[in-house]
Amino acid sequence: MKLWGGRFTKETNQLVHNFNESISFDQKFYKQDIAGSIAHVTMLAKQGILSEEDRDAIISGLNSIRQDLDSGALAITTESEDIHSFVEAELIARIGEAGKRLHTGRSRNDQVALDMRLYVRDEIDELDHLLKDLLKELLSLMEEHLHTYMPGFTHLQKAQPVTLAHHLGAYYEMFRRDKSRLQDVRKRMNYCPLGSGALAGTTYPLDRNYTAELLGFDGPTLNSMDSVSDRDYVIELLSALSMISMHLGRFSEEIIIWNSNEYQFVEMDDSYSTGSSIMPQKKNPDIAELIRGKSGRVYGALISMLTVMKGIPLAYDKDLQEDKELTFDAIDTVKGCLLLFTGMISTMTFRKEIMEESAKKGFTNATDAADYLVNHGVPFRDAHGIIGQLVLLCIEKKKSLDELTLEEYHSVSPVFQEDIYEAISLKTCVEKRVTIGAPGADAMKEVIAVYKKELEE
């Protein structure tokens, strides 16, 4: 069934139909389409545009269609142009003449705009839940590893000692911002376009505020032309999803590095690893690699949608149909990545001793050794040079700063005393950093308390 056949004398060419149809992908939001139609006819009856008898028949028919689609008793066919046509045709087949009144005061333009908003809103809620699960897992790991020392890096070079809790906390902040971004998108898009018609509203006395209320929106959209042609919220969502993918990619890259033979900071669980078809010793971090790679797919959807929208004149144009496949795929991709990533990090084993030894061997306490000299009256620039000489001595003798004898310290500067060893221990280096946001355990506990409160709210 087509909703527009009266004007035409020829059937649509099959290739044209195949190119034009959207039911192969927009069937994904049949639930939203039916929910929107139920709200629409409820409003029509309230306004006296539709009889209560017709309203009840339509709602009953729509509910039966949804139940049959949910159970699989009814299959969606591609003969219809889109999900709207399919549902309406099935409704008419089930309840007869009353079904033909469903579309009163409505266009497919505002109908699809509504369906897309409802679908995106539902998916944002699911994504929010998945992000919350990831944040909970990160928080649990942070609490467990407040005293797990490891090197912090800049330029992929060992820089200063931190804790695993602090390192994971950096990613917590990223995903925390992602969660906030999704909520921003949801809040900004939560206005109902239904009642905008094709582009210029309708002469029927619709109560758009009531429809918006029924569907959980904050109110109706305020310009009918923008209502049917706006896809800003889709672009904003794709941007937020791209950020999530980027953060997952960064984290995955570190896990891949940490899992390597050279680092051995982590061991991947067998359930999240794969082997080699030729090399029996291999245990590959394929899930982390795939998550890292999927970011390109999500970025592609964002760039594609921006390109689609860049030259579209007001109001509705068929180009807008391109929003669905791109958005559906990006949402499904990120949801899958979040689910798998959370499972992967929850099953990883962190090798604390290797991480701590790596921090010691990488001279990550060199800055603290320089601070020690400064606290003993040596100008910082001179202290910097003295510690540089000590590092060269360590490299020559294949020792860490902790392993040098006091005699060896004195060979470079007489300022050093026995307390240098306490001053440059990893525990001291980390725990004396107590400003908010630093890796010291007291500062971290304060931050963790903030995170816990947020998650509870």
TrEMBL record:
Give the protein's recorded name: Argininosuccinate lyase
Its annotated compartments are:
Cytoplasm
Its family remark reads:
Belongs to the lyase 1 family. Argininosuccinate lyase subfamily.
Q: Which Pfam families match?
A: ASL_C2 (PF14698), Lyase_1 (PF00206)
Organism domain of life = Bacteria
GO biological process terms, semicolon-separated: L-arginine biosynthetic process via ornithine
SUPFAM superfamilies (alphabetical): L-aspartase-like
Q: What is its EC number?
A: 4.3.2.1
